[in-house]
Amino acid sequence: MTNNKEKILIAAMDLFHGNGFQSTGLEDILSTSGVCKSNFYYHFKSKEELGVRVIERKVEQMRTQFLVHTLDNPQLNAKLRILGLFQRMLEFCEEQGCRKGCFFGNLSLELSDHREELRRPLSQFFTELQQKVEACLVEGTRKKELTGTGMSPRELALAIVSLLQGGLLLMKTHKEASSMRASIKLLAIFVGEERGGEPNAS
Questions:
Q1: Would the pTM count as exceeding 0.70?
Q2: How far is CA 88 from CA 38, 95, 144, 176, 183, in A?
């Protein structure tokens, strides 16, 4: 049986992703979760604290649903780990009808200049993602699976994360997936993956 705290987190995750943090009122969260206001404040001091907990929960979901199969998957070589992340994100967004976009990217655009307590965990997530990509690049270079690009692994990792976010943003904006497919093709050039078709990270 789902407890009230979990009901609030589940409702807020969906509302924040679909409507944004600032456009989601406390009454929206209470109505969707079926939890009363006094119960909300028993578990969370404020909507901002709830926002931090939601981001933490989404980071955990990202790790278990995406990263463990791609960037953290030792059964794949370095290039397929990175390409696999893009492919899984593409498939996830297409399942959503290219509607909601990236939870982390959406909130970063909305909140980074206004809500420092929420900007920090978002920044930490992107830093973690960049570091995981960088680790793949370092490993791939050491094993001679990847060729040099004239960029350091850290610089290239930052560019790859930026490419991912740009593709996701345009896919949401245009409501179709050509931007992410183009991002995957460009990424394949970056990491030296010249085979035809799209990678399979399953």
A1: yes
A2: 40, 11, 25, 16, 13
